[in-house]
User: What shape does this take?
Amino acid sequence: MKLKIARKTRLNGKSFGYIRVSTAGQNPDRQKAEMEALGIPESCIYVDYASGKDFDHPQYQALRRAVRKGDVIYFDSLDRLGRNYEEIKKEWLYLSEEAEADLVCLDIRQMDTREFKKYSEGTGRFIEGLVLSMLSWRSDRERPEILRLSASKN
Assistant: This one.
């Protein structure tokens, strides 16, 4: 018989920030200032210098391990989370449903899972899924253009 291990629940969840810039030459300071303005301590801000094509980034993986039920994760925008349609949706669902954290995209207030909870479960999940699909698709479609522009500069 397997024993089910209960996850620790934080009564007053912690706030985390996730920042991703595509290259070491890009500056994360603007995003970091936004997170600090929200009162997120520096120790809870995770910064990766990597492409958004996947989620195999050390700081993102550390954030995933740190998050617990009741925590809130802030992103500057959904494309800072990633640029792969299927992977964005998969990670969003992992964080919001399995880890039971709330997620907030600062540039689009409609992407705040705390707001979706105000609706009946079916309606809130439908709205969240619809908005997430549209924004993930847009982030995914921007990636080829970014790669094309980058290649033309070289």
